[in-house]
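User: Could you check the structure of this?
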Amino acid sequence: MITPAKDIYASRSDRGAAIIARQDPVIHGDGKYAAGASSEQIADFDRDGFLFLPEFFSEQETAALLREVERMSTDPAIRQREEAIREPGSDVVRSVFKVHEISPILGRLASDARLADIARQILGSEVYIHQSRANLKPGFKGKEFYWHSDFETWHVEDGMPAMRAISCSVLLTDNRPENGPLMVVPGSHRQFISCIGETPDDHYKDSLRKQEYGVPDPVSLQLLVEQGGIRSITGKAGSVVFFDCNTMHGSNGNITPWPRANVFMVYNSMENTLGAPKFGLTPRPEFIATRKKFEAIKPLAPTRMRG
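Assistant: Sure, the predicted structure tokens are below.
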């Protein structure tokens, strides 16, 4: 009889909260699988768990992407799709998922070699899109998103085996200190926070609007912040931030007049495809976690974007 392998990143089980040292490398294959970022940038990512690239895309490219996201968020046909998620207690669209398939413009963005090669370089393999979405945090109404590690959710609810995925956020509006920018805890990717609480089935229906399970306990979070501090990712539209799947992050609400918008892609290694969710949970829909229909990205040379 074969004994099942112990889950080194066990979470939401019957034990209490815990901080577990990361067992996976941050940079796979010594960062030489592809050439997208400099050796200094790769070292920064390895140390901090994120990489900020200011004004990465031109004003023209960024404007075209923003027009496409705004079009999608107001398109009646798209607003009725299950991929369109509303703000809690509101009819305002918070996110539109699977945008790399719904929109040819955003599909090309996901395959843009300038982004895909950095993901391939860090993950040390060919990659596919695990998840994509357009995020909107409108002025006055944009809600906060509590601290969490994406990997904790992807591991428990999607069956992602290892920490071999990377998120990429393209800023489509200026991200100011006041309008709810992404906040990260530098160095937190080195520690896995095992969370408490039994996960309800179909948890995604609530968690995409407001996450209540898979969030760190206050003591663990305080320890991470005392070690690494908090960095607000602010910058001009067109900037890009990559962050590790286990980096602790969140964002405040937006009560300013200045909206915040971004396009978000998760690149996962082709060697890290999804298994069964933990605890017998029903697999989340394909638009949240790609497990049935995917193929390795073929990086495309940049072209002039129009929108």
